[in-house]
Amino acid sequence: MRKVLEHCPSCGGKLEITRLNCTDCETIILGRYAPCPFCSLTPESVSFLESFIRCRGNVKEMERELGISYWTIRRKIDELIAALGLEAAPAPPEDTPPALDILERVNRGELSAAEASRLLTELRAAS
Fold it and tell me: 95: which DSSP letter?
C-alpha cells in the first residue's frame, strides 16, 4: 500500500484526508481527517524508528545493528522527537570532547576502567 500523500503534487499545498473506504463492505466515510504524525516521517526516519523498537531502545544494541556512534543515534532520536512535534532535550554538540567520549564508552561497558585510564593518560600527554 502506498504512503499517504502529504503535499499536493500540483501546487505543493498541504493535503488532508477527506474520504475513507471500507475494503470489506464498501462503506464510504466523508469528513476531514489529519494523517497521523508518523505518516510525515521520511522512509529513513521510519527505518531508524523500527530499529529503535526492534532493539527495545537499547542504544548499545542499535550501535551494533546500525554501525553508527552513540552520538549519531542520540542526534537521530532528537530529530525524530522534533519531527513528531514532541519536546526534546537539547542535543549534545556534534564534536564530543575525546575525554567525554571515553567516559561514555566506559558507561556503556565498551571499555574497562583500566583501558579508560590508559586512554585518558595518553590524551592528556598529547595535549
Answer: S
